[in-house]
Each structure stands twice: as structure tokens, then as C-alpha cells.
Amino acid sequence: MALTKIGILRNFLSTGIDDNATSTALTIDANENATFANGVTASSFSGDGSALTGIVSLPDAIEVESGAAANSFIIQADGDVVLTSNLSAVYVTANLNATTVSVNDLTVSNTYTHGTGNYVQNRYVLHGTTTNNTETEIFTINSNGRVPVDTNTTVFYEASFAARRTDATGESAAWHLKGVADNFSGTVADVGNVYEIAVAQDDINLAVDIRADNTNDAIGVFVTGATSKNYSWSVVLTTVEVSQ
């Protein structure tokens, strides 16, 4: 997914720059592009903005998916950033003096990560299809990816499964699984048992499983369909991870 620095077009900056902005907070280059320095604390806008014909960018502050609307964010006088519009990806990184980020609609294409350093929570979406009763591994949206278990990391996971028959109507199923996987010096193994709750099942032949995958240093997610039936499967898997 290509990313670019988020910018505001001239018509969005028609009010110009705040009177309190320091002389080191803003640079206008030969092409009349305006760039805020890192750490700027006065970022509201006033005046006529007649000199700003390019795009204003905030380096190392906010990035969104290429093609985001010109009015995707507003920087308030107190430094808070309010994101608007239908953003398909939002990334907030360092050097931004903001305390509040508000989003109308947020879509994360692959994996959502929350945490820092050795203490992380991840959220994955996996999907796949079956046409028979053969156990089938399903993968994350990101190019047949698996849920990784990094070296010397303990991963507690919870997974919610949903299945729907697509060649006929009225057949669905759902499960909830939880367990622990450990990677010790490059060897991945299950810790204890995987706990499973069968929430609902129209066809009792359907089955799901999660198990450690030492070959790929990952957690493998598997589903089993039914003979001569087409099913679509979706799984949301959340991990709590700690490493050394």
C-alpha cells in the first residue's frame, strides 16, 4: 500500500497561517510548497494564505493512504488533530503535538497493532473457502500470510470464526477459540490446550482448529467444510504478545 505525507491543498489553507507561528515553524521553498518543522505547536490558520500554492506537509507527523481527500484533517489552535472524511488508512507517528485523534470511518487493510517494544497486541483478519470436507488452512488478507510467533515470544490468542454456505441459503456456523503459543529460541509449540466454544452450527460436520506451526514460526488457522458444500470463512484473531 503506497503511502504519502498527508497534505492540505491551497483551497483548504485559504485562511493562511496562525499569527503565533514562529519563524522556524514554517518553510516555503522555491516551488512555494510550505512545510512545517517537526515539533511545531502553533498550527491553526488565519490570514489570507495567498502565498500557499503548493501542498503543506507535516514531516514525521501524519500519513494516510495515497489519494486521501484534501480536507482529510484539521489542525486546531491547541495542536489537536481532527481527522475527517472516509480515510482508508491512518498512521500517527512521532513529532506530533496532538492529544486527540477523531476518525469517522477507519479501515485497516491487514493487521492492526497496538503497543510498544516487547508488549504488543495485534489483530488479524483471515479468510478462505472450502468445497469439501478436507481440512484447509486459511490465511490473512495480506498475501496468504500467517499469524507470526516471533523468537522468544509468548502469544495468547483469541479467535472468532464465522462460516456461511454460499451455494445454498440458510446454513451458518460460528466458534470461539483461545490458546497460547510459544517460540523458544526458534522452536514454536502450543502451551497447554486450545479451548473451543461452538457457538452455533447448522451442519455438525464443520470443524475449526488452531495450532502451533513450527515450520513457519506461526500460528496455523484451519477449517473443515462439508462434502459437496461451498463455504466462505472469516476469522478475527487477536493476540496479546510479550517477548524478551
Write a structural description.
- The protein is mainly β and 244 residues long.
- The chain folds into 2 domains: 1-107, no CATH class; 111-243, Immunoglobulin-like.
- It contains no helices and 21 strands.
- Mean pLDDT is 72; it is low at 1-25, 38-71 and 85-97.
**Count of beta strands:** 21
Indicate the percent of residues in helices: under 10%
Using the CA coordinates, give the radius of gyration: 24 Å
Please count the helical segments. 0
CATH structural fold name of the largest domain:
Immunoglobulin-like
**Could you state the order of secondary-structure elements as H and E?**
EEEEEEEEEEEEEEEEEEEEE
| Gross CATH architecture of the largest domain | Sandwich
**Beta-strand percentage?**
over 45%
Question: Which secondary-structure class do the elements indicate?
Answer: mainly beta
Give the CA-based shape.
Answer: globular
**Poorly predicted runs:** 1-25, 38-71, 85-97
Mean pLDDT: 72
Number of domains: 2
What about the largest sheet?
10 strands, antiparallel
Q: In whole angstroms, how far apart are the ends? A: 31 Å
**CATH top level class name of the largest domain:** Mainly Beta
Please give a handful of descriptors for the protein shown:
244 residues; 3-stranded antiparallel beta sheet; mainly beta; single chain; 10-stranded antiparallel beta sheet; 2 domains; Immunoglobulin-like; 0% helix
Q: Strands, helices and their partners?
A:
Elements: E1 3-5, E2 7-8, E3 26-28, E4 34-36, E5 56-57, E6 62-65, E7 73-75, E8 81-83, E9 86-87, E10 90-92, E11 105-106, E12 111-116, E13 119-130, E14 135-140, E15 147-148, E16 153-165, E17 172-184, E18 187-201, E19 207-213, E20 218-224, E21 231-243
Parallel strand pairs: 9-11
Antiparallel strand pairs: 1-6, 2-5, 3-4, 6-10, 7-8, 12-13, 13-14, 13-21, 14-20, 15-20, 16-17, 16-21, 17-18, 19-20
